[in-house]
TrEMBL record:
One Gene Ontology MF term: DNA binding
Taxonomic source organism: Prauserella flavalba
Primary location group: cytoplasm
A Pfam family assignment: Staph_reg_Sar_Rot
This protein's name: MarR family transcriptional regulator
Keyword Translocase: no
One cellular-component annotation, GO: cytoplasm
Keyword Nucleotide-binding included in the entry's annotation: no
Residue ranges occupied by any HTH marR-type domain in the UniProt entry: 11-141
Localization (cell): Cytoplasm
Length: 152
């Protein structure tokens, strides 16, 4: 009989399965997004803006679960690519509104097929994708709630 390992086994870890799946999906997106001139994080920013047209930096960070230190360089790069525009709101100087440029909006049509291609590569049908997405959101919410309850 094979001896049991003394500690945790890599393939038994949910964290490793999530990590490997995330890397595989991101790697799948890479060549697709290269054709659009985008990185994966830039694509996520544009997805949020294509859905909402305009968001404050704060709301965009909340939607993407990114802090301002990570989001600001992303927005600067997208602005340099002339895909988004950042403007201080006239009614609240502390708030910065991010909007799509015409060029950023035009890119939307080229991105439309991407989710379908990635979904096909995952080998999951609509209900299975929905269930996976729901489970992952619940997992994220649970872990975030647990972390928030930890002593600081």
């Amino acid at each position: 009989m094979a001896e049991q390992p003394a500690g945790p086994v890599l393939d038994d870890q949910v964290c490793f399965a999530l990590y490997a799946a995330s890397r595989a999906v991101t790697a799948l997106y890479r060549p697709l997004l290269d054709d659009l001139g985008l990185t994966y994080p830039q694509y996520l920013v544009l997805l949020a803006l294509w859905e909402h047209d305009a968001l404050t930096v704060k709301d965009l960070g909340r939607a993407l679960q990114l802090d301002s230190g990570t989001l600001s360089p992303l927005l600067k790069r997208l602005e340099k690519l002339e895909l988004v525009r950042r403007e201080r709101r006239s009614d609240d100087e502390r708030s910065v509104l991010v909007t799509l440029t015409a060029k950023g909006d035009e890119l939307r049509a080229k991105a439309v097929p991407l989710p379908g291609l990635v979904g096909d590569a995952m080998g999951l049908d609509g209900p299975d994708l929905y269930e996976l997405r729901t489970t992952l959101r619940e997992l994220t919410d649970s872990v975030n709630a647990y972390r928030a309850a930890l002593p600081q």
